[in-house]
Design brief:
The protein is an alpha+beta fold and 137 residues long. It contains 4 helices and 5 strands, in the order ααβαβαβββ. The longest helix is centred in the middle third of the chain and has 18 residues, at 61-78. It is globular, with a radius of gyration of 14 Å.
Length: 137
């Protein structure tokens, strides 16, 4: 997945070969204990060897709500499977503080999950996922 412009000026924090460090992985596992479908699927992907990253710095929620609102419309038009995207857009619209961004990619590459964390990275605001399709050659 190519990061959007809001992410391009930041690099990953403490990545190892699997995509993140063990401390970060443990924290993400604790944050993803929600009962929504996206959080449960992201947690399963993480526990099954998925890579993860949490980027340093924050992004204004207004920008993210606009970006992910466009992605919601795009995925609906294209028939791309997502989980919790509409709820994530609404959550970002309501959240008044900047957020940190994280990502979990399923080990098999089938799903990518975007995590929206509080500014200090200690609470999950919302999570969404998109099914990744392989390009046919």
């Amino acid at each position: 997945m190519t990061p959007n412009r809001a992410w391009q000026n930041t690099g990953p924090v403490q990545q190892d070969a699997a995509g993140g460090d063990d401390v970060e992985r443990d924290l993400l596992e604790r944050l993803l204990v929600g009962d929504d479908e996206a959080s449960m699927a992201a947690l399963a992907a993480l526990r099954c060897g998925g890579s993860h990253v949490v980027w340093p710095g924050t992004t204004p929620t207004e920008s993210l709500a606009l970006i992910y609102g466009r992605r919601l419309r795009h995925t609906r038009r294209r028939g791309i499977e997502t989980t919790n995207l509409e709820h994530a857009v609404e959550s970002l619209r309501r959240h008044q503080q900047p957020v940190r961004l994280g990502q979990i990619r399923a080990a098999d590459g089938s799903w990518t999950f975007l995590l929206f964390l509080t500014e200090d990275g200690t609470r999950l605001i919302t999570c969404t996922g998109v099914r990744r399709t392989r390009l046919q050659t």
